[in-house]
Amino acid sequence: MSRTSTYLNFSRHTEAAFTFYRQVFGTEFIGQIARLGDVPAMDGQPPIAEADKQLIMHIELPLLGGHVLMGTDAPESMGFKLTMGDNVHINLEADSLTEAKKLFKGLSDGGLIDTPLQEMFWGAYHGAVTDKFGVHWMFACPK
Q1: In Å, what is the CA distance from 94 to each residue of 19, 62, 140?
Q2: Strands 68-73 and 3-10
Q3: Full-prediction pTM beyond 0.85?
């Protein structure tokens, strides 16, 4: 079933933020917490620094009414530069690759493709765009 969620990026404190949100909302994390150290080595990419391996790659927490808050660490050591307030993405989880491609194409029209929609090592399709109004969108779709 399709769903929309909110995705937050933090420089190095995703775990602290989500532990706080878990306490406030009284809910439990969905699935396993994925760490940057879980990422397999990728051709042409430097290895993940030892200091970054325990940072969060992906975490999910249900909030209210079925809405899910997701998050990741995006440290400067990996080339990210976050500005608080500019660290939020609307995450669209499509039921099919056809639906994901249609939404990706529509929202990228006149905008900027940050990550092409592509198959990822975790077994799903993923992509990201910033639309022509400056809104950040992420896409997820099962294989």
Answers
A1: 28, 18, 6
A2: parallel
A3: no
Listed by start position, the domains of the chain span: 1-80, 94-143
Q: How far apart are CA 77 and CA 117, in angstroms?
A: 24
For the domain made up of 94-143, give the CATH fold.
2,3-Dihydroxybiphenyl 1,2-Dioxygenase; domain 1 (3.10.180)
Between strands 34-35 and 56-62, the pairing is: antiparallel
Q: Rounded to 10 degrees, what is the CA torsion of 100, 66, 131, 83? A: -130
Q: Rounded to whole angstroms, how far apart are CA atoms 6 and 10?
A: 13
Identify the band that residue 69 occupies on the pLDDT scale cut at 50, 70 and 90.
Answer: very high
